[in-house]
Amino acid sequence: MFTTTTLRLPRTVTSTLTRRLSTLPKTPRASLKTHPQPFQLSQKRSLSTFQKWSLGLKQAKRDIWRKNPILLPLALFSAATATAIFTYIAYVEYTRVGPQYHKFPPPVAEALRTAVYYTEVDLSPPKALQAYKEALRIGIEMGMHPFSDEVVGIKIQVAMMLERAGLAKAAVEVLERTKGEIMGFVEGKDHGEGVTGVKIEKEDGEEKRKELEEFEKQQRDRVLKKAVGIEMKLAELYSSDYIQDEKKAEAAQVAAVELCLKELHRRQSLGLPVGGGLEADNTEGWLNVTEIATALTDLAGRYTAQENYELSIPLQMRALDLLHTEEGNTPTCKQVVLLNSVAGCMAGQAQKPIRAEDPKKAREQLFDAAQQWAKKAIDVAAKIQPPVRDEECDTSCVAATFNLGWLAEFQGKAKEAKRLYEEAKSLSQGLGFEQGVSMADAALKRLAKE
């Protein structure tokens, strides 16, 4: 019978296999338990140009701060300061300097910039004068009207430059010559250089002629206004320490007032506005009322300083009348100042010898009138409120109150004078007006001695 036999491994093989399996670890290694990583070859990536530049910059930044801990902040501060300065210069050039030249042709503006540099920055009268002359020459050649605001303004600027350099006599010469040219143009005797050389075609000749006539009609008011200003500036220069000629100074102020009054009469006869230009809203034409009043009061102030009250009072009255007509029911502090000035002049006139049949009565009338004008000044000032009311109103009230006290003292009314002086002192203390306090104290001491 066929029988199966079992295949058996040799003992040595079985024991050997069992021993090898028993030596295996019961748990897998940690490296095998985690995600195995494929075998990779190590490789080096080259840096781009930008990365190299960035790394170099970072390294340089660290080095420069470490090597220059003081110098670098100073350099950065200097750079920031320079940037701010150049920005400011550009801003001033764009907002202030540039607009002054936009009315001039570019070649004229270029010459003027040179002239202004040698006037404002590096004062050099010869170089500045040469540049101003060049600007005038180019302007006339390019057809600018010789009595336009721009051309006349250049001539006035020349005088201002000479005055700044201490050359007062040369400045006076320029202003006198300019004034003479202006008056020749106003009176129709001089149309200026450059105008006669202008050629006009036949087809548009009539239109151009009318435009020129209209321009010169408007320009007449403008240059006449400048003539008044030149006369007042001449008075200032003649009175300066450089010249000290009071007679010529007074003559210049008289000429300014005569120009104002003559033009006022002409305008009134033609039905034109007393102040302003040909149109009521033309603020850049003829003098406004305040400017006319200023010319009158400047001359009145000179006469007051000379104790020539009979000439000062009419000028102040005329100026006051102009201001009252212009301001109506809304007075300004200018009226208060003038009212007090009239009171002071009348009080001064009362102390001088009076030629009259009854000098005593005439003096009393002057005192009474002075009191009324001083009280009027206080009453008008009381109607003026801020923001129109300013320091002039307050100091004029103090002066008017003090003048009333002085008038009472002069008339022998000691109690009334003391009350008014004390009131003037109190007002001065409230305003911080030291001159008023000292004058009131001196007056009170004088009364105490009497």
Automatic annotation (TrEMBL):
Keyword check for Membrane: yes
Entry's Gene Ontology molecular function annotations: misfolded protein binding
Top-level taxonomic group: Eukaryota
Gene Ontology terms: biological process: protein quality control for misfolded or incompletely synthesized proteins
Sorted UniProt keywords: Membrane, Transmembrane, Transmembrane helix
InterPro entries: Mrg3-like, TPR-like_helical_dom_sf
Name the UniProt record assigns to this protein: TPR domain protein
Species of origin: Aspergillus tamarii
